[in-house]
Design goal:
This protein is an all-beta fold. The protein has no helices and 14 strands. It has one domain. Helices cover 0% and strands 60% of the residues. Strands 1, 2, 3, 4, 5, 6, 7, 8, 9, 10, 11, 12, 13 and 14 form a 14-stranded parallel sheet that branches.
Length: 110
């Protein structure tokens, strides 16, 4: 597992197992086959592709978009968690500013 334990700037591409323990100033893109373990701070957006996985224990100052991965949030997202596809699990102790689940059934207003 690759570990980032020093401050990083710019986009991070996750194609394998990666552990982020520090501050990232930039977006994090989790590709198919990649797994992210996040315990630091991301100042940017997190994007999951189909076939990826992310476990967020830390803080994200930005949006998290799940486009077909397996997403679990235990920490804080000071932005929107948007599920386009895949599975998203949010722990009861997590803090999320806004949740949009495009897989949820629409309810008709009569």
């Amino acid at each position: 597992m690759r570990t980032i334990s020093e401050r990083a700037r710019g986009e991070i591409i996750v194609r394998e197992d990666m552990h982020i323990q520090s501050i990232v100033n930039g977006n994090v893109h989790v590709c198919a086959g990649g797994t992210l373990l996040h315990q630091g701070m991301i100042i940017g957006n997190v994007l999951l592709e189909s076939g990826s996985e992310a476990n967020i224990f830390g803080f994200v100052k930005g949006d998290v978009v799940n486009n077909g991965g397996k997403l679990t949030i235990f920490g804080t997202v000071n932005g929107t968690v948007r599920t386009e596809a895949g599975t998203t699990r949010i722990d009861k102790e997590a803090f999320i500013k806004e949740i949009i689940d495009l897989q949820a059934p629409m309810k008709a207003h009569v």
